[in-house]
Amino acid sequence: MPDGWEGRWREFHHGVQVGRFWIGPPWESVVIDPGRAFGTGAHPTTRLTLELLQTLEPSSLLDVGCGSGVLSIAAAKLGFAPVYGVDFDETAVDATQGNARANGVDVRARRLDALADELPDTDVAVANIALDVVERLLPRLECRSVVTSGYLDRDRPNVPGWAVADRREADGWAADLFARA
Fold first, then answer.
1. CA-to-CA distance for 16 and 25, rounded, in angstroms?
2. For the whole model, what pTM was predicted?
3. What are the structural domain ranges in the chain?
4. Tell me, what DSSP letter sits at residue 31?
5. 59 burial type by CB count under 10 A (0-12 exposed, 13-18 middle, 19+ buried)
6. Could you tell me which CATH number the domain at 5-180 has?
7. 89-104 per-position pLDDT tens digit
């Protein structure tokens, strides 16, 4: 390996502006340290999810597949409470908890399998995850609205009992705001 490769990955992670939020790694501004978890805020699916999240009235929120906590932290800063973050990966839960502390917000993150374990009841959920997981997850949720992403703009989640209220697309990716049908 070339000299310095261990830290050179940082050259590729830069902050982005999404509505009222600037999200970036701590070496640019202390906001999100992705660590080994997924999520710096720069991916189009994260930006699109944040755009749709900002159209909703703050209430209780569940972030499924919380990764580094970008969406959980943004929700808490928007006034959503309580905010729950769940992920199958313990590293992601640790990253979310650390980033929430660094940002001075309360996010109740824990490890669980969103497709098998009991989920916290909330008014709103966000899920920036794969299309097949979105389609299996939504029937398990009791909330009134869900923002989903993690799939291409040609994909349209098909979930009985839910209707698309808004859709955003960017760079070949999509995010949908679902409401109960």
1. 10
2. 0.80
3. 5-180
4. S
5. middle
6. 3.40.50.150
7. 999 999 999 999 988 9
